[in-house]
Amino acid sequence: MSFIRKIPFISGLFQTSPPYHTGKVWENKVGLQLVRVIGRNFLHNLGSRRKVSEPYTQYAKILEAEGVVEIPQFLSQEDWAKVRGEYDAYKSKLVFEAYKPSGKVSMMAARLSLDKHPQDFPETIRIMRDNKILKEMAEMALKKDMSKYKPTLSYLVLHKDDNDEYDDDIENILHADVHYPTVKCFLYLGEATKANGAYIYAKGSHKLSASRLSYEYNMSVRVAKLKRGDKDIPAKYLDKRGSIVRNIMSEEQRKAMGVVETQFVGPGNTLIVTNNIGFHRRGEFEPNQTRETLLVNFRSVESSKLRKFLNK
Ligand SMILES: [Fe+2]
Predict the structure, then answer these.
(1) Count of domains forming the chain
(2) Crossing angle between the packed helical segments 57-66 and 132-142, to the nearest 10 degrees
(3) 205-252: pLDDT as tens digits
């Protein structure tokens, strides 16, 4: 089926869920990304409005209005002790590696899929994967029935070494994950602070606007140009982490979209629900800092029967 992959405008279909910027420079110059953004969000808006049960209705309203919400003391003391207890029991077996290999390494991450180790995490899986409130929050933000869907669960433990000069953390660059609503939840397993890079989100940036469309168009062309190896992208549009060069939002684009960053610090058992069509990033880690999170990801709900067939 390799010849189909080369047909203009549809290469993105060959990924299990719709990728963010994709396609060639000329495809994006004639508006591929604009069609993708408008099309996806049109389909999203055809979905029906859904409700979140009490006492979480107020939090759901914040998620809807701002694209992100923080829920302190999310789990009952009993459930929190079980979730934290299973993490503590496994912690010493976690394996750290470069977050994003790029020459010299300072930012390390241990990632573990809990779904692949169900025998070690029965309580966490019961409490978090089958969580009614998380599912309702995702249903509301995605306007989708998720009754047959299960999110994925993973630990993400981040650690920066003692190097305070060198920044190889690609995730502290402000970005959106995709161009359509997508939901992730983070349960802080330990305290998240400014020093250990607590999550940052630009409230309200999940909403489409003329300036966001203009950004999408500009960014899609730049991403394709960088991929092609073009050297004429202006410096104000580029940044570097380790040896990796990335396209970034310019100051003008930031102002046009009214981007204001908020950092979500909080103790263990704080839950963050975030719609990552909006702009977000990791805070800057100080040396010798660690942050422990449990990620509940609803991302793969974006796959379709066609995508599953094409990517078999
Ligand atoms: Fe992200």
Answers:
(1) 1
(2) 30
(3) 999 999 999 999 999 999 999 999 999 999 999 988 888 889 999 999
